[in-house]
Write a structure and sequence with these properties.
The complex is a heterodimer of chains A (about 475) and B (about 475). With about 475 residues, chain A is of the alpha+beta class. Chain A is built from 15 helices and 16 strands. The mean pLDDT of chain B is about 95. Classes of the chains: A alpha+beta (about 475), B alpha/beta (about 475).
C-alpha cells in the first residue's frame, strides 16, 4: 500500500523586542543565571504584567505578512500548570481570542513545486525559564532569564505531506519574519523552535490518522530526519497490525530516533481562563492601517524589483534576497554609486565566501556598504585591479577597515604608467629569448608565461589588459 | 490633647500647625498598640521603632499637599512593604519580605504616612471574620468574644481601638466594608481600577481593590486622594482625574436620588440592622435627598457568581506558592510532586485549600462552561442590572451585612452560611463599583451597625459626599468601643 504522511506544525518564534513581554527586563540571550529578571517576570507576589506594546505590534505585523485576519478584540488567557521553570505556575498565553487567525503562506520547493499552507492561528505568549540539572549534586537549579521573553506561536493546518514541504515552509517563515524585523530566527539560540504533529494514512484517504507530536526540534536537519523517521515508524506499526498511540515523542538527535514521552491519557488539564490582569486589547483600524504602511518590502517583491530595476539575473536576485541583511547591504552599496551587477558579483562571491569561511550570518557582518562601494569604485576607476581588490577586501573584511588607507599603506595602487609597462615588457622579452621564439613558433602558452613575468616585475599592480596589449605590440615588432 | 480621639485629618492638622510632632503621634500609637494588641491581635508585625525613626525625619514644612503628613497608619498584611514581612496571614509566606513596595505604599510614603506595621487578616483575604489567620484570630474591640469581620479585620479593629488613625485594607467581596461595619468605622472600596493593585498580593485579580478604613468619610476621601491614580505598573488601572475628593466634599445632597433595593432588605436581615440602615435614608432626606424603593432582582445570583469567579482566579493566583522560590517549603519530600503537595497541604490553611479546590474544579475541562463561563455571563447581567439602577438613582443604600458581628468560631463551623452573609457586599465588586460602609447605630447588644452607599463606576465622590452628609448630621462614627482609648 502507498502511504501519505500528514504533518502540521506549531512553531515558536522569539520576537526581537529589546525588552520582555510584560516587564522592562532585557531579552538579550545568555547572561549569568537570574540576572535578566525582576519581580514581574519571576511572578513575585503582588506584581502585575503590563503588555509591551512592541510585542503586539510585532505579532500583528507577522499576522499581516502571513495574510491572516487580525482579531481586533483580543485577550490573553492563563495556562495553568506546575513546573519549577514557570514561576507563576501559569503561562500567559492566548487560547480563546488569539491575535491572528486564518492566514496562509505559499511555499515553493524542489523543481518549481508550490502550494499554499493554511495558518490556523498565531498567538502571543511568554517563554518559561530554564532548569539546569546537576547530577553531581543531585540538584536542579532554576534560571529565570528567559521567563517573559516574548514568543509568537504559529500553528498551521495539517497541510504538509513531506519533510521537504515542511523545510520549505520554515525557510519561508524565517525569511518573512526576518524581513519584517520581528525575529532573528536563530535556531541555535532557540529563537525558532518547532513541534511537529504527524500522522499517516493510505494514499487517497481523506480521514486523518492518529497523530503523534514531536517536541522541541531545534534544527532544520533534525526536523527533516525526525519526520522521515517518525513516518516510517508509524507505517511499520500499522503494517504490523498495531495501532499508533496518540502521544508526545521526543527526538533523540544522537540515536536518530523518537521516543515516547507521555500519552494523551496523561495529558494535563491546563484550566485555561481569561487573564484578569491584562485588559482586553482593542485594535483600531487606524492602528492596522499604520502597520500596513510600515510593512517593509518583502523578499519576493525585492526579487522582482532587482530584475526589473537593476537588470540582475533571476539567480542573483534570489541569492541576494535570501537574507534581508544581504539585500539591505546590496541596496546601500548600489545607492552609494556601485554598479548593481558589480555589487551583486562581489556580494555573491567575496561577501558570501567571507561569511561562510567565518561561519557568520550577514546581519553580524562588520563590513559596511561604503567600504565595498569604495572598493568597486577603485576598480572601476582603474586604480585597483580586480585581483588586488580581492586582497584589499580580505584585509578590511573583519573590521571594516579604510580601503584607501590600506591601498596607500601597501602601495597597491594600479600602475597606469604605460611607458613603464612598455619598458618592463621590453626587459622581460630581452630576458626570455627562448619564450619569445616559442611564441613565434606558435606556442600560445609562452605568451601566458611572459604576461606572468611582466606582472611579477610590476608587483602585480598593473592593469592586466594594459600588459597584454603592450606585450602583443612588442612581440609584433 | 487626647490624640487617639482625633480623626486622621484632625491629627494631620495638629501636626501641620506644630501642635503635635509626628514622633509624638507615633508614641501615642505605640502606646495604644501596646495596650490593645494582646487582646485584639490586630497586628501581625509592629514596626514601631522604624516608625519612630521615620517620624523624626518628617518635618512639618513638607506637609503641603498632604493633609495626612506624619499621621500614623498601617497596612493590611497582603500589601507588599519592602523589607517588611508580608505574610498574607499565611504560614506559606511566613518568612516573605518583598524586595519592593506596593504602589500605594510608595504613594503614601511620599505623602508623609508613617506605617506602624502590618495588620492581621483572614489568610490570603479569604474569610469574613479574620479568624483564618495563621497568626491567630483578630477580636472585635467592641466585644472581644466577637469577630471583627473580615478579611481586613485587623485594619478595622486597629482603627476602632485607636491604634492607628487609618489603615489600608483590600476588598474583594466586602473585605473592607464588612469589618468596618462590624467595628464601627468607615471603610471605602473605590471603583475598580482607581487604585493601583501593584503590590497587592492577589486573591481574585478582577475583583480586588485596596481602600481606606478610617474614622470618617472625610478621612477616607483624604486617603483616596493620596492613593488613587493611574499606574503604569497595573494594566487594569484607569486613567482619569484624581486627587480632589476631599476638597469636593460639600455635604450637599439636595436632589440626590437614593435608590433602596428592596431585595437587600428581605428575609434574613436582622430587624435592628434594617431599622438603622433605613434611618440613614431619613437623615439624608432631611438634607434634601429623595428616596425610592426599587427592585434589583439579581441578588439571588450574586453569592454563587462571586464564589465561582473569586475561587477560580484564586486557584491560579495562589499556584505560585509552591515552595520552590520563596516562602515556606515542606521539609521531607520524595520528588517534585511530593514537594508541591506537602508544601501546599501544610502551608495553606483549610479555608484557603477549600477555595483553591473549588476554583480548580470550576476551571476544569468539562466544568468550565457550566460554572466559570456561566458565572462570567451572570456577572455581566449583574453589572447591567446595576448600570440600569444608576440610570434612575445617584446612589443605592443597603446594609453592609445582614447582621452585626458574630461570635468567634460561630461562622467557621458553617462556611456556606458565612458565604451567604456576603450578599450585600459582593455585587459591588462584581460590578466594579465604589461602595462605602459607615456606622449608623448600635444594636441592642451595643454592637455597631453599618450602612452601605453604592455609586456608579467612578462615582466615588458621590458616595463619599453622601456618607459625609450623614456624618455631618449624626455622631455614630464618633462612637468608640469601651476601653477603646489608649491609656
Amino acid at each position: 500500500m502507498t502511504w501519505e504522511t500528514v504533518i502540521g506544525l506549531e512553531t515558536h518564534v522569539e520576537l526581537a523586542t529589546r525588552t520582555k513581554i510584560f516587564c522592562s527586563c532585557t531579552t538579550e540571550f545568555g547572561g549569568a543565571p537570574n540576572t535578566h529578571c525582576c519581580p514581574v517576570c519571576t511572578g513575585m507576589p503582588g506584581t502585575l504584567p503590563v503588555l509591551n506594546e512592541k510585542v503586539l505590534e510585532f505579532a500583528v505585523k507577522a499576522g499581516l505578512a502571513l495574510n491572516g485576519s487580525i482579531t481586533q478584540h483580543c485577550k490573553f488567557d492563563r495556562k495553568n500548570y506546575f513546573y519549577p521553570d514557570l514561576p507563576k505556575a501559569y503561562q500567559i498565553s492566548q487560547l480563546y481570542l488569539p491575535i491572528v487567525r486564518d492566514g496562509e503562506v505559499t511555499i515553493t520547493w524542489g523543481d518549481g513545486n508550490h502550494k499554499t499552507v493554511r495558518i490556523h492561528e498565531l498567538h502571543m505568549e511568554e517563554d518559561a525559564g530554564k532548569l539546569v540539572h546537576d547530577p553531581w549534586l543531585d540538584q536542579t537549579k532554576c534560571d529565570y532569564n528567559r521567563c517573559g521573553v516574548p514568543l509568537i506561536e504559529i500553528v498551521t493546518e495539517p497541510d504538509f505531506r513531506s519533510a521537504e514541504e515542511v523545510i520549505a515552509y520554515l525557510e519561508k517563515l524565517k525569511e518573512t519574519l526576518q524581513y519584517l524585523g520581528v525575529s532573528d530566527c536563530k535556531m541555535q539560540e532557540g529563537s525558532l523552535r518547532c513541534d511537529v504533529n504527524l500522522s499517516v494514512r493510505p494514499a487517497g484517504s481523506q480521514e486523518l490518522g492518529t497523530r503523534t507530536e514531536m517536541k522541541n526540534l531545534s534544527s532544520f536537519k533534525a526536523i527533516a530526519r525526525a519526520i522521515t523517521y517518525e513516518a516510517k515508524r508509524q507505517i511499520e506499526r500499522i503494517e504490523e497490525g498495531k495501532r499508533v498511540i496518540q502521544e508526545t515523542r521526543r527526538w533523540d538527535e544522537n540515536k536518530d530516533a523518537t521516543f515516547a514521552m507521555r500519552s494523551k491519557e496523561n495529558a494535563q488539564d491546563y484550566r485555561y481562563f481569561p487573564e484578569p490582569d491584562i485588559p482586553p486589547i482593542d485594535i483600531s483600524d487606524a492602528y492596522l492601517a499604520r502597520l500596513w504602511k510600515e510593512m517593509p518590502e518583502m523578499a519576493e517583491a525585492k526579487r522582482d524589483r532587482y530584475q526589473a530595476q537593476y537588470g540582475l539575473p533571476a539567480y542573483d536576485a534570489q541569492m541576494i534576497t535570501s537574507q534581508k541583511a544581504l539585500a539591505d547591504f546590496f541596496e546601500e552599496t548600489v545607492a552609494l554609486g556601485a554598479e548593481p551587477k558589480q555589487a551583486a558579483n562581489w556580494i555573491m562571491g567575496e561577501v558570501l565566501g567571507g561569511l561562510s569561511a567565518r561561519a557568520l550570518e550577514a546581519k553580524d557582518m562588520k563590513l559596511s556598504p561604503p567600504t565595498l562601494a569604495r572598493l568597486i569604485a577603485l576598480v572601476k576607476e582603474g586604480k585597483l585591479n580586480r585581483n588586488t581588490a580581492v586582497k584589499v577586501f580580505e584585509a578590511v573584511f573583519d573590521h571594516d577597515g579604510d580601503v584607501d588607507a590600506f591601498v596607500a599603506e601597501h602601495g597597491l595602487e594600479q600602475v597606469n604608467d604605460l611607458g613603464l609597462v612598455r619598458e618592463t615588457v621590453k626587459q622581460v622579452l630581452a630576458e626570455n629569448p627562448q619564450s619569445v621564439s616559442d611564441f613565434k613558433a606558435g606556442k600560445e602558452k609562452a605568451f601566458g608565461f611572459l604576461v606572468g613575468q611582466a606582472m611579477r616585475a610590476l608587483h602585480g599592480k598593473a592593469d592586466p589588459k594594459a600588459v597584454n596589449e603592450a606585450l602583443r605590440a612588442a612581440l609584433a615588432e | 490633647m487626647e490624640l487617639t480621639k482625633l480623626t486622621a485629618l484632625e491629627l494631620g492638622k495638629a501636626i501641620q500647625t506644630g501642635q503635635v510632632s509626628p514622633a509624638e503621634a507615633v508614641q501615642a500609637a505605640r502606646a495604644a498598640i501596646a495596650a490593645h494588641q494582646g487582646e485584639n491581635n490586630a497586628f501581625i508585625t509592629v514596626t514601631a521603632d522604624a516608625a519612630l525613626e521615620r517620624a523624626r525625619t518628617l518635618t512639618a514644612g513638607k506637609a503641603a499637599g498632604s493633609p495626612l503628613w506624619g499621621v500614623p497608619m498601617a497596612f493590611k498584611d497582603n500589601i507588599c512593604t519592602r523589607g517588611v514581612k508580608t505574610s498574607c496571614a499565611s504560614k506559606i509566606l511566613g518568612d516573605f519580605a518583598p524586595p519592593y513596595d506596593a504602589t500605594v505604599v510608595e504613594k503614601l510614603t511620599g505623602a508623609g504616612a508613617v506605617s506602624l506595621g502590618k495588620l492581621n487578616m483572614d489568610e490570603f483575604a479569604m474569610g469574613s471574620t479574620s479568624e483564618t489567620s495563621f497568626y491567630g484570630a483578630v477580636k472585635n474591640p467592641w466585644d472581644l468574644t466577637r469577630a471583627p469581620g473580615g478579611s481586613s479585620g485587623g485594619a478595622a479593629a486597629a482603627v476602632a481601638a485607636g491604634e492607628v488613625w487609618y489603615a489600608i485594607g483590600s476588598d474583594t467581596g466586602g473585605s473592607i466594608r464588612q469589618p468596618a461595619a462590624y467595628c464601627g468605622v468607615t471603610g471605602m472600596k473605590p471603583t475598580y481600577g482607581t487604585v493601583s493593585r501593584y503590590g497587592l498580593i492577589a486573591y481574585a485579580s478582577s475583583l480586588d481593590q485596596m481602600g481606606p478604613i478610617a474614622r470618617s468619610a472625610a478621612d477616607c476621601a483624604a486617603v483616596l486622594d493620596l492613593i488613587q491614580g493611574r499606574d503604569s505598573r497595573d494594566g487594569t488601572s484607569l486613567p482619569g482625574e484624581y486627587g480632589n475628593l476631599l476638597a469636593s466634599l460639600t455635604g450637599d445632597v439636595k436632589g440626590l436620588k437614593i435608590g433602596i433595593p428592596a431585595d437587600c432588605f428581605g428575609e434574613g436581615l436582622d430587624p435592628e440592622v434594617r431599622k438603622a440602615v433605613l434611618a440613614v435614608a431619613d437623615v439624608l432626606k432631611g438634607r434634601g435627598a429623595t428616596v425610592e424603593e426599587f427592585s434589583l432582582p439579581v441578588m439571588e445570583y450574586v453569592v454563587p457568581t462571586y464564589y465561582i469567579i473569586a475561587c477560580a482566579e484564586a486557584s491560579s493566583n495562589l499556584s505560585r506558592f509552591d515552595g520552590v522560590k520563596y516562602g515556606w517549603r515542606a521539609e521531607d519530600y520524595e520528588d517534585l510532586t511530593d514537594l508541591y503537595n506537602k508544601t501546599r497541604t501544610q502551608g495553606f490553611g483549610r479555608e484557603v485549600q477549600r477555595r483553591i479546590l473549588l476554583g480548580t474544579f470550576v476551571l476544569s475541562t468539562g466544568y468550565y462552561d457550566a460554572y466559570y463561563k456561566k458565572a462570567l455571563q451572570v456577572k455581566a447581567v449583574i453589572k447591567k442590572a446595576y448600570d440600569e439602577a444608576f440610570e434612575k438613582y445617584d446612589v443605592l443604600l443597603t446594609p453592609v451585612s445582614p447582621t452585626t458581628a458574630p461570635r468567634l468560631g460561630e461562622s467557621l463551623s458553617d462556611p456556606l452560611k458565612m458565604y451567604l452573609s456576603d450578599i450585600d457586599t459582593v455585587p459591588v465588586n462584581l460590578a466594579g463599583l465604589p461602595g462605602i460602609s459607615f456606622p449608623c447605630g448600635l444594636d441592642g447588644q451595643g454592637l455597631p451597625i453599618g450602612a452601605q452607599l453604592i455609586g456608579p463606576a467612578l462615582g466615588d465622590l458621590t458616595v463619599l459626599n453622601a456618607a459625609h452628609a450623614f456624618q455631618l448630621e449624626t455622631d455614630h462614627h464618633k462612637q468608640t468601643p469601651k476601653g477603646g482609648d489608649a491609656a
